[in-house]
Amino acid sequence: MLCQLLEGVQQKHPWTVAERSIIERRIDLGTCIHNERDVRAYIASQAPNKASVDDFWRLIWEQNVQTIVMLANLYEDTKERCLQYWPKEENETQCFGYINVTWTKTQHFADYVIRTLSVERGGTIREVKQLHFKEWPDKDVPDSAMCLVEFARHCKLIHFKKQTPLLIHCSAGIGRTGTFIGLLSMMDVLQSKEYIDIFAFVNKMRENRVNMIQTKKQYRYLHTCLYEFHLTRDCQISAQILSRFKIHDNKAAILREFELLSEVEMSKTNDSLKTGGTTDSLARGNSTDSLETGGSMKTEHAPRDRFGNMVPTGRRKVFMLSSSPSNPDNYINASFVKSYEKKDAFITTQSPLPNTIEDFWRMIYDHKCHTVVMLNQLDKSDKDSVTAVWFI
After folding, report:
1. Per 3-state DSSP, what percentage of the chain is helix, strand, and coil (rounded to 5)?
2. In a domain, 380, yes or no
3. Which of 80, 267, 288, 379 is the most exposed place for a label (fewest CB within 10 A)?
4. Where is the composition biased (Basic and acidic residues) (predicted)?
5. What's the whole-number average pLDDT of the chain?
6. ∠201-47-218 over CA atoms, to 5°?
7. Spatial distance between the Cα atoms of 148 and 146, rounded to a whole number of angstroms
8. Domain for residue 213, yes or no?
9. Sign of CA dihedral 333, 336, 337, 339
10. Is the confidence at residue 125, as pLDDT, over 60?
């Protein structure tokens, strides 16, 4: 239930439906959302399907959309949530009505992908950037706040100074879409003002489109994202600047940055405790996972943990794929860690205990690890605690 954005059309209800300019039938395409300055900055859209994909591209063309933000995956919980509205392979072209779309370039990051699309109609060619955030479950929230904040920063960098609306869609175009629009708009406010009114902005969004931000969890997550955005600066440094960066001259800045990490960590601790989690979630440095898992582990796993307060939780826990009678739950004290460009680039784990050395090697085999980096020294006098991993 989206609307074609036509100037001068009165919105009679949150799901505005307007007549198509050429084909005389009613269609649903997108809703205009204004930012905090009352500028038509966003188009909130549902994901296209087979019946609407041609109209979806027609909307993009007519509104001169140059940036698309996709917050859903094609399939979620085994159900199709979004039709693939770009070509199947890079360097291929697909026709959508009178519009030809060519997928020309791809950039991969840990949580998202940026695709460059060449869009042609009647001999006129435009470039459209699609930013696809892949780590946001439907009616839920991502693993952490900072991953979405960094995505929003990258989105703003790409869309900087463009006068055309930013098209944002998830599946239904209300929950994740509303949360992200709220984040983008309030980030702008925080750049120039000392206060924000999240409630008022969400209420204003809902006057244009119903149920923008679907759940309490998403609304709370928006506050967490804005807190971390306000607390931290952009820590990305270009290679050119890094080559001239002098540690000695920037000790104060580095120390302040480390202190900010502690402040963010403390806020996650308080957030976890308020939502029924425990400080065990600090092992992941992630408060949102404790909302899902309760931040607790089974007591029978305690003998397999070297430190009781360093316990993996949430969606990044590592499980063995093969089975063992000695460990039927396939539990190991290990977590997946992302790199800048890859989701599960590393596995971090404790030094094996005598009763977990088999699990350690099973994990290496199951997850096809080709390299093991050991950063601790073996204390041969402590045979009950430290085990060499290269022999049993």
Report:
1. 35, 20, 45
2. no
3. 379
4. 298-307
5. 82
6. 40
7. 5
8. yes
9. positive
10. yes
